[in-house]
Structure formats: structure tokens, C-alpha cells
Amino acid sequence: MNRFALGLLVAVVGATAVHAVDAKDTLGASFTRTKKLKGKVTIDAKNEPIGDILKEISSQLEDQKLGAISVTFDIGVSKNTKTTFASKDKSAEETLDGLLKTLDLGYVVISKDKDRYDGWLKLVKGTNRGYEAGQEPKDGPKPVATPEPKPEPKPVVKPDPEPKPVVKPEPKPVTEDKATEQEEKAAAARLATAKELIEKGKDAEAKPLLKYLVKYAANTKAGADAKELMDKMK
Fold first, then answer.
1. How many helices (H) and strands (E) does the chain have?
2. Does 9-130 carry CATH code 3.10.580.10?
3. What pTM was computed for the model?
4. I need a labelling partner for 69 at 20 to 30 A (CA). Which of 54, 99, 120, 135 fits?
């Protein structure tokens, strides 16, 4: 299994999912829902623009090696809208839920294959929580996760025998398999977006995309080009 596919597989399996992953989600959208939005963040904002608060959330997630969250704003939603909000050690998903409630806003995880905004968040007017209206999973959007009370332990009737040590198998080394055509196209689309941002002088927004390509698409042409771009930006 190549590094690009393995990285995304680990991200999806390792995350504690609150929403069931929609089968229609792209890899980028699924990674945002099941990995990035599960990272814990702490916010203490006092009359600050919502755009700055979202950048702080993104920065904290990037520090945790989960990758930055890119955000776009729907018509009529301004990143300069100021608010006061505090949240400590909550998932990014819970934090966004509380933050946007104060502004009567919602967000959608963009899921469009080969689109420059694939995997981004779009802030919209309304109560959306991850999905476009009418596009929620069939069982409806699930509420933000809350810890369930632990059941009382049952009394032990007989002592269990001493458990045998579990021998974990050695992890298989990642091989440098050739990327598939689909992986090459997906990586090329991300690289194109990064280059576009660099041309506009938005290096800070381009770096997370380049880092993602270097880490998860190293065996693609776009991954190699991304590494060269990052070396030049140092």
C-alpha cells in the first residue's frame, strides 16, 4: 500500500467518529470530518473577528499534526464579524458548534472531487453542521459527541487467570508503490490550488496543502513538486 493511501486509511480508522462517514464523501472531505474536526482545541476570544478565531483553531490542529483547516465564506457571511467565545479542550467540531451558535451560522464540509475547495469548510447562514441542507446522512445529523457515563463494574466471582502477554506483530514497512492514476489526479489538483495561493501571495494558506502532499502523496509527481516548492519557500 502506498503512503498516500495508507495515510488516509489510518486517519479514517483511527478517528473517533461522531457522524457516520457519508459514502459520497471524497477522501479530502472524509479526512476533514473524521480526523481534523476531532482534534482538541482551546479558544478564549474576546470581541475578535470570526476569521481570526478560525485561524487559531486551524493553527492548533496543525500543531497536532492533523493538518490545517481551510475556510471559505458564503455570500452574506463576513469573516470580520466579531464575537466573544471561550471553550477549553473540546474537539474542533464541538468548538465550531458552540462558536457558530452565537452568530446564527453554520458550516458545510465541501465534498467535491478534483475541486480546489475539496475538504474545506464553508461558513453559511443557518444551522448546518457539516452538510448542505437535505444532504445529511439518512439517519440525520448526529449530535456533537458527549461522554457517556461508565457502567458500574460487575463483581468478580472468580479471579481470572493471569492473562498471557499479547505479542503485537511488527508493522509492515510502507513500500514505494507507484501511485494510481486517481491518486496522481487528486494530488495534482491539490498542487494546483497551492500554486494558485502562492501566486496570490498567500503562502501561509498554501503551506498546509504542500505539507499534505509531501507527507501523503510522496510517490506522486505532485508530491515531488510540492517538496521542491517547500524547499524554495524556506
1. 7, 6
2. no
3. 0.49
4. 135
Distance between start and end Cα atoms, the chain: 31
- Identify the burial level of 189 via C-beta atoms within 10 angstroms of its C-beta, where 0-12 means exposed, 13-18 middle and 19 or more buried: middle
- Spatial distance between the Cα atoms of 183 and 28, rounded to a whole number of angstroms: 12
The SS3 call for residue 207 is: helix
Q: Are 32 and 161 in contact (CB under 8 A)?
A: no
Q: What gap in Å lies between CA 101 and CA 7, rounded to an integer? A: 33
Q: What one-letter code names the amino acid at 24?
A: K
User: Any bridge partners for residue 71, and if so which?
Assistant: 121
What's the pLDDT tens digit per position in 149-191? Answer: 667 777 666 666 666 777 666 544 434 567 788 888 888 888 8
Rounded Cα gap, residues 217 and 224, in angstroms: 8
Burial annotation 218-231 (CB, 10 A radius, 16+ → b, else e): bbbebbbbbeebbe
Spans of all domains in the chain: 9-130, 181-233
| Pairwise CA distance, residues 51 & 77, whole Å | 11
Residue 105 to residue 124: CA distance in whole angstroms: 6
Question: Taking a C-beta distance cutoff of 8 angstroms, is the pair 3, 219 a contact?
Answer: yes
Neighbours of 49 (CB within 10 A): 15
